[in-house]
Design goal:
Layout: H1 14-29, E1 41-46, H2 52-63, E2 67-72, H3 84-91, E3 97-101, H4 105-113, E4 119-121, H5 129-143, E5 150-154, H6 159-171, E6 174-178, H7 187-192, E7 197-199, H8 203-207, E8 212-215, H9 227-233, H10 241-244, E9 252-255, H11 267-270, H12 277-295
Parallel strand pairs: 1-2, 1-3, 3-4, 5-6, 5-8, 6-7, 8-9
The structure holds phosphoric acid mono(formamide)ester and norvaline (NVA).
């Protein structure tokens, strides 16, 4: 029997991904509808820091009557060099689903290959699909269907940006990515999605007429030593209220958080009424609940 993993948004049929988002909206309106997963355990194996992803998974499991077990790599034998395959073999005999946050995406794939239970990508250097479930839920709740709309990504072509590229295909929207030279997303991912995804180094023309403007930190986890060099490369890519003024009148602002105010986003934008970052953060829980219902 093949095990259904969720390593990127492309791992499930389009209808299932859209279904997760619809279900998340339903569960938010009536949490009593959620499946009962009593006696089920979600393993959370994190090699990087987290606030939202971890909290959202733990609360989701508690509300559904199950439990979760958090393992930080540095406190487990993983941090002392136990092969990730062995960790996967052992944990997957004990729990019903595992969410892994790690660096290389290939490490996650390797973990999934050796797992007896579904594995969820809780963020890798290349993708952050759980974030996109929440972002799509948030847009749809606030503005209706995202199909046929325009989205601008301003800043680094990072893991969240690359999941936006996958989401553009699944949810059928146009994505305009504006990043400095040398910080573009993966070339193959771009060329495979050339029908809907465009690169535009000028943030103003990327944002013009869009319904959603999204950004993320300039230096992701693991890139701390590049912070200074990146701050200089990205200085013209801050989302300011002036930049937002080129978007459509009812355009939303999103950021996966944590945010660095005064770097990738100005204070007045992230704290403005069309910023939906707190809804996005809350929706991590509702959408991950819907994902767990499907996988467990
Ligand atoms: N957005 C997000 O994944 O946040 P955490 O790193 O806090 O989990
Ligand atoms: N791009 C960021 C996202 C954090 C949720 C990082 O990888 O650090």
């Amino acid at each position: 029997m093949t095990i259904q993993h969720f390593l990127t948004l492309k791992d499930l049929p389009v209808v299932d991904i859209r279904g997760i988002v619809e279900r998340a909206i339903e569960l938010k309106n009536d949490p009593n509808l959620a499946a009962n997963v009593s006696r089920k355990t979600l393993g959370l194996v994190f090699e990087k820091s987290s606030t939202r992803t971890r909290a959202a998974f733990e609360v989701a499991m508690t509300q559904m009557g199950g439990s979760s077990m958090f393992l930080k790599s540095s406190d487990s034998q993983l941090g002392r060099g136990e092969p990730i395959e062995d960790t996967s073999r052992v944990l997957s005999r004990l729990v019903d689903c595992i969410a892994l946050r790690t660096d290389k995406h290939s490490k996650l794939e390797n973990f999934a290959e050796h797992s007896r239970v579904p594995v969820i990508n809780a963020l890798t250097d290349e993708f952050h699909p759980c974030q996109l479930l929440a972002d799509m839920q948030t847009f749809i709740e606030k503005r209706g269907d995202i199909s046929g709309r325009s989205v601008a990504w301003i800043g680094d072509g990072n893991n969240v940006c690359q999941s936006y590229i996958n989401a553009a295909e699944v949810f059928n929207f146009e994505l305009r990515i504006s990043c400095p030279k040398g910080f573009e997303p993966n070339k193959n991912l771009l060329s495979n999605n050339a029908k809907r995804v465009y690169l535009n180094s000028d943030p103003i023309s990327a944002v013009r007429g869009t319904d959603l403007v999204v950004t993320d930190v300039w230096a992701s986890m693991g890139q701390e030593t590049e912070q200074k060099e990146r701050a200089s490369a990205f200085k013209n890519y801050q989302v300011t209220s002036e930049l937002m003024s080129y978007a459509n009148q009812y355009a939303l602002f999103m950021h996966c958080l944590p945010a660095h105010r005064g770097e990738e986003v100005s204070c007045d934008v992230i704290d403005a009424h069309d910023s939906v970052v707190w809804d996005e953060a809350e929706n991590r829980m509702h959408s991950q609940k819907a994902l767990l219902e499907l996988l467990i």
